[in-house]
């Protein structure tokens, strides 16, 4: 391959693929900023509705920077993070079977916004061994089409990649679905047999350093759930 051919290939790749990735990034950042503004509004709306209930169940919004924001919902915290890079799906992903992607491969490049669920006390008491739970991932492409991989309603309601457009209405629906899922996803008591024997050293360490890892799925021992279909 001659130098002129290489030069043309580099220029065409920059003009098409790299510019497309910049567009995907811009769309994802715009969606993340829209998500932040909706989180603020939702916090105000629900706190007004909870005015005569209990202050401890009020929502609390925190902007953590350009690529992270969080919403405290009673005993839970939802953390939303935007990745600064653009991704393509692996060849085994079901997205490649859709006519939308088959018709234009460039539509498969997406930005990602992750939604994590942590226990409020994990952050409040700096329990560094506690683990969060990925409950959803929002994928956004160059045309602002999106879909969500996630738990329960998050995965079922937002999976029409070729037609669904990310906007204020869909952002609001995703946030409220994440809140509802989190409220219904309870902390389980750890199995008795896993906790019945403990050494003096382990107990002292747990008391002094709060080392007992806590999470919702298996109580004190929390494992990632890789199934996005339930």
Which features would summarize this protein structure in a list?
disordered C terminus, 6 helices, alpha+beta, single chain, 230 residues, 6 strands
Short description:
The protein is built from 6 helices and 6 strands. The protein is of the alpha+beta class and 230 residues long. Helix 1 (3-49) crosses helix 5.
Layout: helices, strands, pairs:
Elements: H1 3-49, E1 59-63, E2 68-73, E3 76-82, H2 99-103, E4 111-119, H3 120-124, E5 133-140, E6 146-150, H4 153-157, H5 168-184, H6 200-209
Antiparallel strand pairs: 1-2, 2-3, 3-4, 4-5, 5-6
Helix pairs in contact: 1-5
Evaluate the radius of gyration.
21 Å
Number of helices: 6
Gross geometry: globular
Q: Which percent bin holds the helix content?
A: 25-40%
Outline the structure in words:
The chain is an alpha+beta fold and 230 residues long. The chain has one domain (3-187). Helix content is 39%, strand content 17%. The chain has a 6-stranded antiparallel beta sheet. The model is unreliable at 218-230 (pLDDT under 50).
